[in-house]
Amino acid sequence: MEKFVNKSSCINDAKSPQKKIKLESDERIENEDEGEEAHHLFKQLEEEVVYSTGEEAKVQLFGKVHNIPRKQATYGDAGLTYTYSGVTRLACPWTQTLEYIRDAVTKTTGQTFNFVLVNRYKDGQDHMGEHRDDEKELDPLCPIASVSLGAPRDFIFRHRDARGKQSHRQIKPVKLELAHGSLLLMNSPTNTFWYHSLPVRKKISLPRINLTFRRILLGRKK
Ligand SMILES: O=C(O)CCC(=O)C(=O)O
User: Fold this and answer.
1) Tens digits of residue pLDDT in 87-106
2) What integer pLDDT is reported at residue 96 of this predicted model?
3) Where, in this chain's numbering, is substrate bound (predicted)?
4) pTM above the 0.85 mark?
């Protein structure tokens, strides 16, 4: 059932950053069945997922409202909401395919998830800026499980002490290629110390869907 998943894990802290981001390359052996299942799941998601439009397709950054440079949707358990970049999103009920992938990720990781953020990048122009997934409503003990389907894209981690004007340490960014059918696990405390982004890649013409499975604390249910 979880055949489509090729796993990589990211268990970074402040002290030994690069060493702890490891691609479990032995698990990335291309297998025809896995590729086919991942392709099937991509097609199913293209039919099932309904992306936000209007105000819900915007974010607020430094007081200004911007269109999101990709499409986004939120699914999960009834009544859950997730607020980021100034916008609160209500979870739509799980679709059959999202539930299937969630259960496969649970089987692989041993973790349970009650929410998924879906991002669709139509091509390499669509992107996601540098940020951390450090919202208070996220269960800090639960890793964020990121499943990628479609065009492979670069994913960059940058340490918080090596960014911008406050930069006071020399820590190289870490680049991973998120392949079709891959699973990246961002374990605690990755999102405390590391920012991540999915930069523009102009040569990429094919779409990609990314699912980040999360656990939202129920005490914070609105
Ligand atoms: O599409 C991706 O891999 C990036 C997703 C991401 O950064 C997020 O959901 O926070």
Assistant:
1) 888 999 999 999 999 999 99
2) 98
3) 62-64, 82-84, 134
4) yes
Q: What is the pLDDT of residue 33?
A: 74
Read off φ and ψ for residue 116, nearest 5 degrees: -140, 135
Residue 117 CA to ligand 1 center (angstroms) comes to 8
Q: CB within 6 Å of ligand 1 — which residues?
A: 117, 119, 128, 133, 146, 155, 178, 196, 198, 210, 212
pLDDT the model gives residue 29 = 39
Annotated binding residue 84: yes
Pairing type for strands 182-186 and 6-10 reads parallel
The CA 145 to ligand 1 mean position distance, Å, reads 10
Residue with the two structure tokens 């796993």: 7
Q: For residues 176 and 144, is the Cβ–Cβ distance under 8 A? A: no
pLDDT at 8: 60
82 is in an annotated binding site: yes
**Regions of the chain where pLDDT drops below 70:** 1-31, 220-222
Domains plus CATH for the chain? 6-220 (2.60.120.590)
**Where does residue 170 rank: exposed (0-12), middle (13-18), buried (19+ CB within 10 A)?**
exposed
Please tell me the predicted confidence (pLDDT) of residue 85.
76
CA of 28 to the centre of ligand 1 (A): 20
